[in-house]
Amino acid sequence: MQKFILEKKNHITIVSAILIIIAYVSKLGFKNEPIAIWSLIIASVLGVIPIAIQAYQALKVKVVSIDVLVTIAVIGAFIIKNYEESAIVTFLFLFGAYLEQRTLNKTRSAIKELTEMAPEVALKQLKNGEFEEVEIEEVDVGDILLVKTGAKIPVDGTVLTGEGHINEASITGEAVPVSKKKDSGVYAGTILENGTLQITADRVGEDTTFGKIIELVEEAQDSKSEAERFIDRFSKYYTPAVLGLSFIVGLISRDIELAITILVLGCPGALVIGVPVSNVAGIGNGARHSVLLKGSEVISDFSRLDTMVFDKTGTLTIGNPKVADKEIYVDNVDEVLAYLSSVEKESDHPLAKAVVEYIGDTKSYTVEKTVVVKGGGIVAHVEGHRVAVGNVALMEQENVLLSEKVRGDIARFEENGNSLVLTSVDGELKVLIGIRDQIRPGVKEDLQQLKKLGVKNLVVLSGDNQGTVDLVARELGLTEAHGHMLPEDKSAYIKALQERGQIVAFVGDGVNDSPSLALAQIGIAMGSGTDVAIETSDVVLMNSDFSRLPYALGLTKATANNMLQNIIIAVGVVLVLLASVFFSEWMNMSIGMLVHEASILVVILNAMRLLRYKL
């Protein structure tokens, strides 16, 4: 019965409103007092029933809630035959709860949008080789699934056959479709825009990347910050205090109506709802912009950030080394580059791949007698020529003469942060190539924006040599740069900053730097939604888009400020209402409840501004 009544709460609100209108029309229009009184009595009784049920449920778990205060106030008004007050108070309370729930649902729109994007069915291959549509719950790891044009990818998996382009915006935030073919990985919740694919299910249900994103946002919206826990404790003692104040005032003044009015006006509704609704709205905004914030505790710490520490490779830089400089010391350059490409194709070293990619399509020669020199490079025979490809040490070992000009070029390349690849043919230097990781486009502007948002120190920690790290720091205008750092060195550096009282964020790729991500107050993963990124960090930039970082910081600052505004509004309204009871003639229970409900809507609407937040 209780459940049925609570489900019909909105209907009761409408009936109460109609009865109150009938009462005023009867009283003012037709001077019919009995109909007016009975309409208000029925409205009061109907209205107080769901409120009283909620009060009873709260008292069962030893919580003196707002519903308890309102129930006592309405019963008191009813006893002293102030039916007008009791009817209006119950209607305003129920109507306020309806509006509150409706606006809260809007702030949770990010979760709704995500869950609606989750796939519900899949075309699964049966034992006879045919495909049949089944519920997503019936798909297991290892099943073969068919995905047609326009359909959602139902699981995380690997392409077996077929080619197509997939819109991965739900995972990476990147709107440009990604080409997929045999052995390509695919994500659940993404959309096959053209083509037909057969895929093997690697992860299903909640274990998929998409499932983990939904779980993360749900957990974040349900988590509580220190501010929310404080308000919970405050309300626990505040509500009985209002009851006590009401009782004492009634005892001293012998004015029951005054005591009941204090109960209504002292309700801390806006205070209780103000912080959680800001938290939910901020997290919802972030989720829609590929910034996942793991709860309001993260928001609180992030908004007060002192120092942001970056891993270099894959974070400040693209993580894909490319040829940046070259010097040619020979006329027949095409033939030498063909020799070089042929030798480098024998290696899977990142620098070798960069060289092959840079040279592009060229003639391929048979490579013989290949010798890998540890810490030096490769020596091989191509078309009867001895070809050495590697660093300066290998050239000296091969007795290759390095002229003053060459040594000057080498020094210049190193100053620019390049890794060196030298190529000699038959003991004579032919080509000098400089390779370096490229800085992410727009990173410098993003770092300047972080400074404007109040980040005092921007630090880079890297395993690369100090010269390369210094070069990146100078180019980007960073505060500090430290090279030759192992993962444990990075963790120790962050711990030292924290011991000095700084609030530290660490930005990494979510794989090699998981100790630092876990140790920092705010771990931020540039992870494209990888498992490690989601599990380890506090903030995930789902599309590895560095420009989302200033947005995330700005959003957390706006959310923290919004929480504070709502607390000030809520406390201010209660203080003004209580002061008005004692020091004014115009304040009564109905006006007080109207202001009280209005204050709840004000804090909710204030929080909803975060849904439209832009940096």
From TrEMBL:
The chain crosses the membrane at residues 12-30, 36-56, 63-80, 86-104, 234-252, 258-284, 563-583, 589-611. Pfam families: E1-E2_ATPase, Hydrolase. It comes from the Bacteria. PROSITE patterns: ATPASE_E1_E2, COF_2. It is an enzyme of class 7 (translocase). Its EC number is 7.2.2.21. It catalyses: Cd(2+)(in) + ATP + H2O = Cd(2+)(out) + ADP + phosphate + H(+). Keywords: ATP-binding, Cadmium, Cell membrane, Membrane, Metal-binding, Nucleotide-binding, Translocase, Transmembrane, Transmembrane helix. SUPFAM superfamilies: Calcium ATPase, transduction domain A, Calcium ATPase, transmembrane domain M, HAD-like. Residues 118-218 form the P-type ATPase A domain. Its main location: membrane. It is found in: Cell membrane; Membrane. The keyword Membrane applies. Coiled coil: none annotated. InterPro entries: ATPase_P-typ_cyto_dom_N (IPR023299), ATPase_P-typ_P_site (IPR018303), ATPase_P-typ_TM_dom_sf (IPR023298), ATPase_P-typ_transduc_dom_A_sf (IPR008250), ATPase_P-type_domA (IPR059000), Cation_Transport_ATPase_IB (IPR051014), HAD-like_sf (IPR036412), HAD_sf (IPR023214). It is a multi-pass membrane protein. Belongs to the cation transport ATPase (P-type) (TC 3.A.3) family. Type IB subfamily. This is Cd(2+)-exporting ATPase.
